[in-house]
Amino acid sequence: MATAGWEDGGLGWVWRRRLLAWEAESVRECVGLLNNFVLEDNIQDHWRWLLDPVHGYTVKGTYRFLTIIDDRVADITGIDVWHNLVPSKVSLFAWLLLQDRIPTKANLVHRHVIRPPDNLCVGGCGFTETMDHLFIACDFFGSTWYLICLWLGVSCAFSGSVKDHFSQFTHLAGLPRQSHLYLKIIWLACVWTIWKERNNCVFKNVVLDPLSIVEKVKLNSFLWLSSNVVPLLFGLHDWWRYPLSCMGIM
Predict the structure, then answer these.
(1) Where are the alpha helices (DSSP H) in 119-235?
(2) Nearest-CA neighbor of 149 among 210, 237, 227, 67?
(3) How many other C-beta atoms are found inside a 10 Å radius of the C-beta of residue 150?
(4) Contact 51, 61 (CB under 8 A)
(5) Are 189 and 220 in contact (CB under 8 A)?
(6) Using an 8 Å Cβ cutoff, are 247 and 181 in contact?
(7) At residue 77, does pLDDT exceed 50?
(8) Is residue 130 within 8 Å of 104, Cβ to Cβ?
(9) 115 pLDDT exceeds 60?
(10) pLDDT number for residue 17
(11) Residue 173's pLDDT is what?
(12) Between the ranges 1-15, 19-33, 216-230, where is the mean pLDDT highest?
């Protein structure tokens, strides 16, 4: 495959049939990952067990990893990011996000993947790219939540913690219980889109635009809601302009 060319547009990505939309998206993600790898003829490939690089895989070590509960995992047991309207990969991403297990630059430094000087946020704010900073505190990406609140017609002062932010946003004070499902889907669409745009900036040098992020959040949340068996009583135009009315809040 590497010989045929695994770069974007290379012959290693020729398929017998036309790819579905979700398949094409997965291929683009794979291409972005492989762009960082360089094969060398004089180096032999080998398997490496990341949980124990020295001794390798053992049943005992794996059992210990699966049975010892991390404090961060215990903290989020009451947080539900799963819903059948949301793609499973998005819910899985949110679950990893709330455990601080996604590959932010701070985590990559901790795993010795990149050097400490390379840990700055891609938003250009000059701070270390931690989970809480990237999704909440960053001047660039954090402004997405302000724009989302403008779209919803609500005002709120959010916590600087991603976990607290999830609980606060999905249960906004003053809004009835019937809005919680919609707000959860909007939150999931927002963190997913922020992460995708962050990766596009890192791997493809795409110019970031908060307004574009919000537009994608609106579209993704509507598409996920419309995947329900029961048809929606509102259209995309209504969702774009009157989201609270679409939630049944007058």
Answers:
(1) 131-132, 143-152, 162-169, 180-204, 210-226
(2) 210
(3) 11
(4) yes
(5) yes
(6) no
(7) no
(8) yes
(9) yes
(10) 84
(11) 65
(12) 216-230
Task: Let me know: does 127 contact 105? Beta carbons within 8 Å.
Answer: no
Distance CA 237, CA 232 (A): 12
Would you say the C-alpha torsion 118, 119, 121, 126 has a positive or negative sign? negative
Distance CA(58)–CA(5), nearest Å, equals 36
Whether 98 has a pLDDT exceeding 70, the answer reads yes
Confirm if 201 and 190 have CB atoms less than 8 A apart: no
The C-alpha atoms of residue 136 and residue 171 are separated, in whole angstroms, by 17
The one-letter code for the residue type at 47 is W
Question: What mean pLDDT is predicted for residues 224-239?
Answer: 85
State the pLDDT at residue 19: 76
* CB 140 within 8 Å of CB 208: yes
Name which of 59, 241, 28 is nearest 151 in CA terms: 241
Residue type at position 99:
Q
Cα–Cα separations (whole angstroms), residue 24 to 18, 19, 159, 162 = 9, 6, 36, 30
